[in-house]
Amino acid sequence: MGSQGGFGQSKEFLDLIKSIGECRSKAEEDRIVLREIETLKTRLSSPNTPKFKLKEYLIRLLYVEMLGHDASFGYIHAVKMTHDENLLLKRTGYLAVTLFLNEDHDLIILIVNTIQKDLKSDNYLVVCAALNAVCRLINEETIPAVLPQVVELLGHQKEAVRKKAVMALHRFYQRAPGSVSHLISNFRKRLCDNDPGVMGAALCPLFDLITIDADAYKDLVVSFVNILKQVAERRLPKSYDYHQMPAPFIQIKLLKILALLGSGDKKASEQMYTIVGDIMRKCDSTSNIGNAILYECICCVSSLHPNPKLLEAAADAISKFLKSDSHNLRYLGIDALSRLIKISPEIAEQHQLAVIDCLEFEYLFVCSFSCYKASMSLNLAFPYMISISDNHYKTEIASRCVELAEQFAPSNQWFIQAMNKVFEHAGDLVNAKVAHNLMRLIAEGFGEDDDAADTQLRSSAVESYLQIMGEPKLPSAFLQVICWVLGEYGTADGKYSASYITGKLCDVAEAHLADDTVKAYAITALMKIYSFEIAAGRAVDVLPECQSLIEEMLASHSTDLQQRAYELQAILNLDAHAVEKIMPMDSTCDDIEIDKSLSFLNGYVQQAVENGAQPYIPESERSGMSNISNFKSQEDHESSTHALRFEAYELPKPVLSQNVPPILASSTELVPVPEPLYVADILQPATSAPSGSDAGPSELRLRLDGVQRKWGKPTYSSATPSTSSNDTVKIQNEATQRDSVGISNSKTRDVSYDSRKQQVEISPEKQKLAASLFGVVSKSDGRQPSSSQKISKHQNPTSDKSRAAKTAAPDTAAVKTSQPPPDLLDLSEPSVSSSAPSVDPFKQWKAFLI
Amino acid sequence: MASVLQQDVTVGARGKLALLIHFVLLISRQAKVRLTKWYSPYSQKERAKVLRELSGMILTRAPKLCNFVEWRGYKVVYKRYASLYFCMCINQDDNELEILEIIHHYVEILDRYFGSVCELDLIFNFHKAYYILEEILLAGELQESSKKSVARLIGAQDCLVEDAKEQASSIKNMIAQATK
User: Fold this and answer.
1) Identity of the residue in A292, A327, A797 whose CB atom sits nearest the CB atom of B66
2) Cα–Cα distance between A320 and A322 in angstroms, integer?
3) Which residues are bridge partners to B80 per DSSP?
4) Superfamily of domain A213-372
5) Domain of B105: which CATH number?
6) Which residues form a coiled coil (chain B) (predicted)?
7) How is chain A split into domains, by residue range?
């Protein structure tokens, strides 16, 4: 049959397709299609159009809709065509309606009558076409209209009709189980149909029925086993063979059904062992379809009552998959392994090396993520993460670990430990947000009203950090988290003395002399611990090393560190009451209330004005100066860190600026900070404040206590913000720093697959890696099986996969861009063609012409 | 996507009755659509979105990667034949290799029907490809795994077409003669 015009299309149609094929742009295509739509609109509605022409127009309409344009104006013509007496037109009509319409479309009602008539037709082809439409279009309301005829057709002499009738009934069952519940026995009957096609079709509804209620079909176990046996013994007609496998699709369906029936049923499972074992033995593992059956067998074995022999066979098959060169098979291998591990964890041990080999391929790693749920995949991920030296992938994987951990953590402790691992291995690559999230999590707990649990979480975090912090070369982000947590909660549960914690903090600061951020965190932590001590009325003895550290900081080049050190000194000299106000215990989660209008100062301003001070003129009224000041203010905005500013800070609410000078004048005794900055910091703690001054404002605020108490709202607590605003500013500040580091890291990433490979090639090391990793797996499985199981039950099994997939997409895409363009005739795996000596269609594919 | 999700929810309520195959797509290497068959309800807008997303994902995938893509909680199994990508969307826990072979099964039948099929055959006779697909997949399930049965049915339908044509031409002749 010719490729062009072999089926009698007109030249017009061919031209349309050709011109669309030759389109260079989407706009051009759209223009052609729109023109075509106009033509079709007039021609279809014209009463003079001959019927055989109508058919072609309808096909052209299909084409237009396929290209994504609205063809709804022509739906009615498709419906009309189904009414036609001419079989050719009727068939086209049915094709068009099944493609155009959904089951809830309004036009369905117009077709039901035709379908009813056609189901009674003498011509079995008409009946088939109608049944196709039934499967697609009949909805719950219209089922009763066609149900009797469909049931009658189950006994039709033509097997094609019986088959489609079974499928239609299955569809009805899916749509509205109630409407056909009395007809379910028909599916059982069709199982014994003479025609294998009908029998195969009957397996589909039975599979659904058994999924819902396996117990009602236990009596069929023997029949299914027998059918499977017969299929495997090639008793079906030769035409069902596919690549030398006897009816593989039917085998797979049967295996799926057996898996359902045998799940948790020892007696039923025992009946299946022989046949499943036979099939696994017989499978031709060189062809795709053979492997498909093998995979289905593994799935089946993993859901049957465990049988050591079969498990062994399944494990063998899995190891073949994992060692295969085909990525598809490796993918399935990991998937199958994750199924089998559930019932026999020791298999994991056998295959740990193979799995780790698979992990070397980043994209397979992505797959394995979706297969291995939560803890499993994380345990796999960590050793893998160590082994990669490419920062880009490391970042990718670290962020995915974090994502998974956040989603599936079985317990808080587990989450903290997992995060520790992530930070340990890839700390500098993790988004700074992650660190802040972790801090927030520790501070807020998990939102439950269970204070005991929160406290426990914190002390376990402190404990784990104290253990970890001794290790050399911890990434900066992680150290920041450690310092923060130790500062907030180090002494909270009384287990560790203040001097112990402060000593540790000093060690951290001293070990990272080059890292100002860490030092800043450490000194703030020191400040917190000292103030908690003071507030609790205990005498503070500053360790000599702390003292020297503070002194060193006082002379630091970094104004930020200096500021913090001065603050610390100032606090050390305050009395318990004041310190308690400044640094309340555990106040990070408290909301900060900010009186933006500074109304408490109104009295003061009033007084000043009465005493002859100039009243404040809002900036909008000072328009005469606007030109210069606008220009200047822009400049100032950019360089606000360096320059002092002379005019009022340009905020939308002028009241603020008005009130600033008085504050400074009245209550500031501390280091004078440029006033506009002060306002900016208080009002917009979210903006990344310049590092030199972010601690200053909070200190200034602290001194406002007296002012507030006299004039402020009674609810306003100025003490709380001290730590929190301090921290938020800091966190933001570091976030920006961290980001820039991350960017530069990824820029300078050195693609060094080689070094990674080398690492993996060293087999003893790898083995150690594997042993440790799977050791962890089995241990953790043993320790908290209930929680992890709970997780897996709770979670929709698909959701994490999808999640992984979502993130996987850009990753793989990014990897791919560097690949050379795919070969035009790059076809499937060689194994397929080698196993299909009959006719290999790939070879005959012609080159792409249009 | 909302509609599909909704369906899954209602289906989930009475057990897992999701379709085997949610849709079949044929996309050329230039991201031109050659055939689309939707077994789950998707609005025209959703369809366009799905096509855009998937063609972006699949066409850019390196050839050495596996033939399965995870997408929105589903899996898309695809295979490339010359310049055409055959894609099928399935549920997460289905047997991907089986789907791969269903695709191949379809291709073999197309090949047998057109006699070494090429993309042009499918471009100009896409309705034929639809007819064949309807005989292989019905309501998202594999209805016939015997190539012979499919070929027989399609052959019978084509005979019908030939008959109808002859009939039509003879009628036309008769009319022509009568009007002479």
Assistant:
1) A327
2) 5
3) B85
4) Leucine-rich Repeat Variant (1.25.10.10)
5) 3.30.450.60
6) none
7) 213-372, 431-582, 665-849
